[in-house]
Fold this sequence. Notes:
Helix content is 38%, strand content 20%. The chain folds into 3 domains: 90 residues, Uridine Diphospho-n-acetylenolpyruvylglucosamine Reductase, domain 2, CATH 3.30.43; 119 residues, Uridine Diphospho-n-acetylenolpyruvylglucosamine Reductase, domain 3, CATH 3.30.465; 186 residues, FAD-linked oxidase, cap domain/gating helix (Vanillyl-alcohol Oxidase, Chain A, domain 3). The chain contains 17 helices and 19 strands. It is globular and about 70 Å long. The two termini are 37 Å apart. It is an alpha+beta fold and 461 residues long.
Amino acid sequence: MTPEDAVLAACDAALDERDIVTDPDILGSYVRDRSTGSVAGEPFAVVFPRTTEQVSAIMTAAHANRVPVVPRGAGSGLSGGSNAIDGSLVVCLERMTDVLEVNSTDGYVETQPGIMNTELRDHVKESGLWYAPDPASKDFCSIGGNVNTNAGGLCCVKYGVTRDAVIGLEVVLADGRITRLGRRTIKGVAGYDLTGMMVGSEGTLGIVTMARLRLRPLPPPATTAVAVFDDVASAGRASAAIMAELTPSMLELMDQQTIQVVEAWRPMGLDVNAGALLVAQTDAGHGAALADADRLIEICEQFGAREGYRSEDEEESEMLLGARRMAILAIEDLGDWLLDDIAVPRSSLADAMVRIQDIAQRHDVKICTFGHAGDGNLHPTIVTERGDEAAGARALLAFDDILDVALSLGGTVTGEHGVGNLKQRALGREIDAVAADLHTRVKHAWDPENILNPGKSLPRW
Length: 461
C-alpha cells in the first residue's frame, strides 16, 4: 500500500464518502487560490472534514505516512498560500461552518473556520454585537483563512487586524494532536503567545478548527467623507496628516487608473479625471462623526484637494464606499492581473505612490493602485492584456520593483495577504539571516516532518 493509499484508507474510516474527492475533474477546483503568478501542483485527493476529530484522524495518518497536507479554506487568498503541491492531500475546511457560541457578556464568539466573514458578522449582529475585521473579500473569504493570513480590511485602521480579534484557537498539530491555545479573559500573559504565532502562519504550523474571536458593541452609523485630488502625492500627504490628528474608522485611497477602471465597470459618477480619491469613514457617534468628517475634509483641502464632501445618510455612505470595494472585481474583468500588497510608513505613502507610477511608465504596464491609506497598506495591481506574454514578463519585473520600493522606504513586502509561495524570495530580502533561522526553527518545532503546507511562507533566496 502506498502512503497515499494509507492516508485515503484512514480518511475512508473517519469521513463520510461524500467528503472525499479523488475525481481529477473536481480536484482542479481546489488546486489554487485567487492569486496570479503563483505556482500550483497536483494533489491526489481533497477531503472535507466536518469536525476537529476528523481533522485529527487525517493529520495522524498523514504524519505517520509522511504525506504533505495543504490546508484550505474558501480559496480566496492572494499569495498562493493554499495552492496544492504535487502529491499532496488538500484538507478543505469549507464544510466546518458552525457557530458554536456567542457570549455577549464576555464579548466573544466561538466558530468553526469555514464560515464566511460576512456570515459571521451577520450572525453576531443578531445579538447586537460586531466582529470588526472586514477584508474587501468579506463576502467570500472564510474566518479560518482570515486567521491563517492575519487578514486586515477596511476597518483595521481603527479596530485592528485579525490578530487583534483572536483570543483563542483550537488547533490540530501536524501529528494529529489537538490543543487549545489562548484564553477567554480580556487580559492574559501566561506562557508564550502561541495563539499569536498561529495567526498569520498560513497553515504551516497547524490547522485551526475553532476560533474564539473578540466582539464589540455595534458601532454607530458611519459618516463617509470623500476628497478629490489632482495627484496621488497630495492624497498621500493628506492621509498622513489625517492620521496624525484623527482616528477614522476607514481611510481608503484610489488612484486615477483605479477610478477609471471602476467607473467603466460600474458607472456611478466618479470623477475619472481626478488624480486620486480618498474615501474615509468616521463612526465616533453622530455629532462627533460629522465633526470628524468635516475636519477630515478641511485637512484634505489644506493639502490640495479640489473637492470634498460627506454623505448625508447611511445609504449614500454605502454607495460611496462601494466604489472602493469594487476595485479588485473591476480589475479582474479588465485583463490579466498581478496584485501586490506592500505597506510603508504613512510618512512615505506619497513617495511610494509616485514611485509606483514611475515603475508603470518604466515597464510600460498599467498599474492600478488602491488600498488602506490610513495604515500605509497599498495594493498596486498590474494589469496586462490577456495572453500578452511580453507584457506578462514586464509585469513580473514591475512587481519585483514595487517590492523593492516598499523595502527601500522601510516598509514590508506584504501588509495583509501573506507570503504564500509568491513572496518567499521577497521575504528573504526583508528579514535578516538570524530572523530567517528563527523562522526555520519554529517551523521545525511545530512540524518536524515538514508535512504541513511545505514550501510556503518561509524565506527563500
